[in-house]
Write a sequence for this structure.
């Protein structure tokens, strides 16, 4: 089971790099949605059996991260003129290299962490750290509002991966609460993105500079 | 009881969504606020009602925050009726629904004894306040809301990671993983130290973003500057108090784990840094609402500092949550009135508020004196008590810097406030239709009276509540 789990986590890591390397916003959205579906499947593999509560937790996760949020994002993208991330803070190739370095760092760093013995072999912790770092890279280096939102989602995915280790600590109610918060947050953000697009005729967050000292 | 206190405002929010009249709907706000405060006081008086479920327990810390925010909400809700009457041109359905939902979710924050649930609730307070900041639908308010949502969401996501680390600290030590506060406190000494340290840093950054500690405060001047005054009061007195409660929980666990020294150092550093950054931006500040935002950053710094000083300053710190929350209400509501009367919040256009709006102008000045720690107002007692705590703890340097920064803030803030209230209002400002009314004036007077009362004499039940909370934090039942 650990082998299968690890191979999925490797795919998640590769999707991180792919999200960093593409300039088309719609590709970023698709990448993150595939990542969301894979993450939704993780609890199945890390426990090995399908109980009713596990099933109840998996279904909304996949529906939300794989279908609903990407759908909302694609919808928001429909009215936008520029569909590509032009002029990111640093170029696309350097960000991929940065992401790869981040992944290597995460793997080395996770080795140093005092992990419980049952988690020593699995890639969960390094993948979680690398995904959080990827989220931050997207948030910092991209200027289109929608890409920044995808960065936030990738960051949230990384935290979700770490949560795999702690199923007992997060009861179903709380987990559903977290998902609900995520959904409402994206919903509110989509409305604001839409307003930004109408008011500024652009999704470039560099135009949001009227408030400063 | 927890379910009643949490779900009653949510029900009223649903009712507000159903009411078609733009004019009648705001009246549901004070009704909700009054009933919520009555329920809160009733629960506080009856110790047998404070346990509702395994995760819903109202401990002394929760009681204190619930009382402060519920009181502040009542005054703000009366003001909101007057405010929305002046803003008849804008639909207020979303505004009213979000305000009431906030009250319900805030109550959940104070009741929850499961750190995961508390995280969900605190993130919830961010989400329901975002549409409030957006109320004016201007380009500037879009920008402010965007920054608020993005910075707030990312910050609070880190707090979730920190919460997970805390659970992992238990797992690593070979215990059953649980995020229930009681379990964590009982087993605190056995928690794995490296994970606990990492968890504290992440929680400090995450909930610190929500509180608005420097350097994570960047959303604050924008959000407070663009939001209506009443929303500013709710944010500065309510949302930040909830985030501070989360910080208190974190401190409590680390303290019980015997990591007081490690936690103290970080809190003292963040506290002084926030005060220093805030004082820098306050000197020469021309936008009086942004000035209030920096004042909020400063006071969050004072709270972090007080917590960092530990036992000798805890009473003052918890009292400061009360006095800061109420005084912020006075300042933001009166600033909102001045903003409305002048149509500007820049001191180049705004002067002579004392003559143009005698009531709001005077209250704005009194609120400024109170928040900067002048006697005989409440914040004087709490800030003095924190300062005393610093010297008692033998931290002379910290106490000295604290005093110096308070002085800088007093001078910086004073210059702006005096420009606003003194002088003669321009002709066009005198001809705007806005006048102080009962609904937009009385709530501020009420809050000011409370601030003055706490400064003259702390009511025995409040003092008892704070003493209980201090004992609870120090681990004595």
């Amino acid at each position: 089971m650990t082998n299968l789990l690890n191979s999925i986590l490797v795919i998640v890591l590769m999707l991180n790099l792919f999200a960093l390397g593409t300039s088309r916003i719609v590709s970023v959205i698709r990448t993150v949605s595939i990542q969301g579906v894979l993450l939704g499947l993780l609890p199945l593999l890390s426990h090995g059996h399908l109980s009713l509560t596990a099933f109840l937790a998996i279904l909304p996760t996949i529906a939300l991260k794989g279908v609903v949020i990407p759908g909302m994002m694609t919808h928001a993208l429909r009215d936008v003129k520029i569909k590509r991330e032009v002029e990111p803070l640093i170029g696309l190739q350097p960000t991929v290299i940065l992401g790869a370095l981040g992944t290597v760092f995460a793997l080395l760093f996770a080795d140093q962490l005092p992990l419980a013995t049952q988690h020593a072999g699995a890639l969960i912790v390094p993948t979680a750290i690398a995904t959080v770092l990827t989220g931050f890279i997207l948030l910092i280096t991209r200027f289109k509002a929608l890409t920044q939102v995808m960065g936030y989602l990738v960051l949230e995915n990384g935290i979700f991966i770490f949560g795999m280790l702690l199923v007992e600590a997060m009861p179903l109610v709380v987990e559903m609460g977290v998902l609900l918060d995520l959904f409402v947050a994206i919903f509110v953000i989509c409305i604001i993105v839409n307003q930004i697009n109408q008011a500024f005729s652009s999704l470039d967050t560099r135009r949001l500079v009227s408030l400063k000292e | 009881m927890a379910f009643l206190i949490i779900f009653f405002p949510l029900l009223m929010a649903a009712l507000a969504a159903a009411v078609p009249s733009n004019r009648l709907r705001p009246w549901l706000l004070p009704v909700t606020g009054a009933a919520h405060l009555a329920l809160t006081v009733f629960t506080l008086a009856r110790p047998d009602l404070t346990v509702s479920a395994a995760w819903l327990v109202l401990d002394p810390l929760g009681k204190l925050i619930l009382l402060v925010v519920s009181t502040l909400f009542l005054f703000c809700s009366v003001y909101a009726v007057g405010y929305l009457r002046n803003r008849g041109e804008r639909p207020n359905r979303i505004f009213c629904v979000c305000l009431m939902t906030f009250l319900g979710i805030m109550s959940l924050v104070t009741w929850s004894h499961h750190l995961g649930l508390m995280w969900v609730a605190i993130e919830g307070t961010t989400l329901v306040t975002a549409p409030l900041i957006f109320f004016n639908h201007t380009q500037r308010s879009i920008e402010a809301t965007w920054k608020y949502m993005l910075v707030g969401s990312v910050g609070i996501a880190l707090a979730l990671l920190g919460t997970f680390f805390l659970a992992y600290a238990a797992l690593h030590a070979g215990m059953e993983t649980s995020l229930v506060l009681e379990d964590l406190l009982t087993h605190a000494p056995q928690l794995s130290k490296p994970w606990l340290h990492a968890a504290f840093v992440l929680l400090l950054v995450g909930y610190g973003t929500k509180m608005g500690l420097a350097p994570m405060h960047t959303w604050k001047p924008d959000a407070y500057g663009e939001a209506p005054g009443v929303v500013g009061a709710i944010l500065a007195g309510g949302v930040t108090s909830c985030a501070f409660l989360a910080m208190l929980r974190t401190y409590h666990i680390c303290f019980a784990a015997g990591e007081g020294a490690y936690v103290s150092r970080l809190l003292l550093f963040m506290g002084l840094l926030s005060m220093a950054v805030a004082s820098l931006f306050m000197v020469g500040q021309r936008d009086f609402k942004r000035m209030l935002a920096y004042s909020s950053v400063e006071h969050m710094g004072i709270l972090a500092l007080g917590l960092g000083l530990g036992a000798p300053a805890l009473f003052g710190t918890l009292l400061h949550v009360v006095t800061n929350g109420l005084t912020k209400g006075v300042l933001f509501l009166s600033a909102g009135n001045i903003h409305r009367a002048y149509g500007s919040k820049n001191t180049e256009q705004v002067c002579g508020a004392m003559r143009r709006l005698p009531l709001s102008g005077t209250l704005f000045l009194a609120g400024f004196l109170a928040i900067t720690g002048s006697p005989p107002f409440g914040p004087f007692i709490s800030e003095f008590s924190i300062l005393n705590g610093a010297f008692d703890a033998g931290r002379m340097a910290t106490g000295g810097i604290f005093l110096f920064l308070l002085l800088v803030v007093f001078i910086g803030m004073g210059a702006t406030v005096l420009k606003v209230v003194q002088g003669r209002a321009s002709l066009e400002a005198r001809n705007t239709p806005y006048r102080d009314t009962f609904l937009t004036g009385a709530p501020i007077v009420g809050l000011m009276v409370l601030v003055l009362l706490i400064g003259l004499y702390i009511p025995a039940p409040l003092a008892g509540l704070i003493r209980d909370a201090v004992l609870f934090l120090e681990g004595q039942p």
